[in-house]
Amino acid sequence: MSSQPEPRILLTSQEIEASVSRLAAELNRDYHDKHPLLIGVLKGSFMFMADLIRLLDFPVEVEFIRLSSYGGGRESSGKIKVVQGVRTPIKGRDILVIEDIVDTGLTTAFLLGYLRRKRPASLRLCALTDKPARRKGPVTIDYLGFTVPNKFLVGYGLDWDEKFRNLPDICVFEGEE
Ligand code: IMP
Questions:
Q1: Is the per-residue pLDDT at 47 higher than 80?
Q2: Residue 134 DSSP SS3
Q3: Phi and psi of 68, rounded to 5°?
Q4: Which of 90, 96, 99, 173 has the smallest count of CB within 10 Å of its CB?
């Protein structure tokens, strides 16, 4: 086995583009008379957010939030804190959270609880990918791109140790179980 794993394409950039277009159409239908605040979860959502908002035909505001999970590595420890918060007031706003991936769901559950306590008018979640095999608690994804297998994904904003975010496709590593 080589020590330098080779990324293998799981979802092509064309498949991602089609999925982002479908999600944008759903959002254009549901938010056409609203003025929501989209909150992207850094860093992994930046590419998805950038592609998605270009297809939205209603007025949007954009914020980013950065969370940290102690423990490092590939496992979410569940001990999460906000390291870069949102300055725009949340109270009374329609909030749409933009996530790259829901894996164990611990980060998302924490974030939705954190935002809900700020009393938004509505709070929904749009996630590009969902890895349900590793879920540790219930998470409702209102708008979902892809359900993915229990493998570590990189590309299209997703990283492995800060690398591979720039790949245009979503990839897995050959040899990974
Ligand atoms: P959680 O396990 O659902 O709390 O996921 C927390 C975060 O871990 C996600 O927002 C991603 O940043 C990261 N993550 C989870 N699974 C993957 C993956 O397969 N590739 C890259 N990052 C991941």
A1: yes
A2: helix
A3: -125, 145
A4: 173
Q: Report the distance separating Cα 120 and Cα 98, nearest Å.
A: 16
Q: For ligand 1, atom 16, which residue shows the shortest CA distance?
A: 103
pLDDT of residue 173: 80
Catalytic site residue 103? yes
* Closest Cα to atom 20 of ligand 1: 153
- Give residue 31's region: left, alpha or beta (phi > 0; psi -120 to 50): alpha
Task: Report pLDDT digits (tens) over 89-138.
Answer: 999 999 999 999 999 999 999 999 999 999 999 999 999 999 999 999 99
User: Which residue, judged by its Cα, is nearest atom 2 of ligand 1?
Assistant: 104
Expressed in angstroms and rounded, the spacing between residue 33 Cα and the centre of ligand 1 is 32
- Answer whether 60's CB lies under 8 Å from 35's CB: yes
In the reported structure, the alpha carbon of residue 136 is separated from the centroid of ligand 1 by a whole-number distance in angstroms of 13
Mean of per-residue pLDDT scores for the chain: 92
Helix or strand (DSSP H, E) at 41: strand 37-42
Please give the model's pTM, rounded to 2 decimal places.
0.93
Q: Is the CB of 112 under 6 A from ligand 1?
A: no
